[in-house]
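Reviewers of the previous submission asked for a worked example of the structure-prediction workflow described in the proposal, so we include one complete record here. The input consisted solely of the amino acid sequence. No template or homolog information was supplied to the procedure at any stage.
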Amino acid sequence: MSSETKGLLILQDIQDAIAELAEQVTPTVVNVSPIRKIIPSGKGLQERGAKVPGSGSGIVIHEDGYIVTNNHVIGTATDIEIRFSDKTILIGNIVGRDADTDIALLKVEANQKLKSAKFGDSSTVKVGQWVLAVGNPFGLDRTVTLGVVSGIA
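From that input alone, the workflow returned the following structure tokens.
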């Protein structure tokens, strides 16, 4: 087998591993869209609820329905539409938020346990290692980006 063929096989193995990892993580990644609250108008009519412009990604961190996203994604909304990779849509409530760290914790009530992300040990990450960023920004279904850790701290 030529060295060129060996190199192509190695690249194919790497590509397959990346695609498999993305498939494993995808069910834990959600689309997060804030919803405007329904408010009575001055004429006694109610404004129809509508999605606030913009959306972002979130990740299920616990099987009981806890989801982390960025605080700037949810803005001033009180209710959040959560769309899962299987197209299920649930309404999330805000459990907590911190503008300084740009983190928000949401909770959804599901009829079953949710697949949640597994966390690694970030203290072992080294400059030069490959990383995947899996998301659901702007309503784009399940984006994956490959990158390299360029710095730590």
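The mean pLDDT is 88. We consider this example representative of the routine output the project will generate in years two and three.
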